[in-house]
Amino acid sequence: MNTQPRIYVAGHNGLVGSAIVRILRAQGHTDIVTRSHKELELTDQAQVREFFRTERIDQVYLAAAKVGGIHANNTYPADFIYDNMMVQANVVHEARVNGVQKLLFLGSSCIYPRMAPQPIKEEYLMSGMLEPTNEPYAMAKIAGIKLCESYNRQYGTDYRSVMPTNLYGPGDNYHPENSHVIPALMRRFHEARVSNAPEVVIWGSGKPMREFLYVDDMAAACVHVMNLDHDTYAKHTDPMHSHINVGTGQDVTIADLARLVGDTVGYRGRIAFDTSKPDGTPRKLLDVSKLKQLGWQASTPLQEGLKRAYAAFVELMEAQQNRAAA
């Protein structure tokens, strides 16, 4: 008799979703349900309703989201707030209607105020103004947290939320304009090395500080939090601040990060900073003490994670070149 839970990973082709699938399979889970964007449009309530009605899901990892860096958030604010709110509302609601008791919602550290005290504790949520460059995305993610909390209060579900810091690793988006900072830097330095460019220009002053978490560590944290018994999780949270920060507890300036990425790629040219471009939030370091109390902490150092991420990037570039040549 199969006693394994039937687990739906929403967004399994994305950075975090693919890592969650890797972790679950490594732990021996075989009843994992996935759907590509073409197979299931999560912004369409009718499609999501039919999916949950027919698939009999036990657990949901809600990793599906529209994500991007400062440029993408500034350029497509309506897409970021609409798509994310629709996905969250449809999945959480239909999960509850169809008897799913356990769900893990993945948010983002941008939910916190731009000038939040450092390191950022979970209770700082909605205590100040958000960073303007990604406010629509942040508002959607805050709504997702409150959606889970509200369904727990009204229906007695066990829907949890984790707030990751900046993520990177295999499966990342390397678009030259719409990607996050590490994959954007990695691609820029790689192309500069290949073309022998004398200089790489980085957006902003390089002074902002950021925390970075290797995506497989994030996935391991997600599975850990999902599998905590209800009483243990409830002991470290409260109904109005039920989310858990996930990070390393350490940060680095963008300038130092750029140098690390350049060294990883093997670029030997100059690094310049374009101060006409926005910096975003001055600092975002998460307080991860709750997660440590719950028995988990990150294990991949930044330099090691960058090496793994770059190896995955090179493999992806080579595969794309081979397909183009075929």
TrEMBL record:
Catalytic activity: GDP-beta-L-fucose + NADP(+) = GDP-4-dehydro-alpha-D-rhamnose + NADPH + H(+)
Family annotation (SUPFAM superfamilies): NAD(P)-binding Rossmann-fold domains
Pfam families in alphabetical order: Epimerase
Pathway(s) the chain acts in: Nucleotide-sugar biosynthesis; GDP-L-fucose biosynthesis via de novo pathway; GDP-L-fucose from GDP-alpha-D-mannose: step 2/2
Domain NAD-dependent epimerase/dehydratase: from-to ranges: 7-228
Location of the active site: 137
Function: Catalyzes the two-step NADP-dependent conversion of GDP-4-dehydro-6-deoxy-D-mannose to GDP-fucose, involving an epimerase and a reductase reaction.
Designated name of the protein: GDP-L-fucose synthase
Species: Massilia aerilata
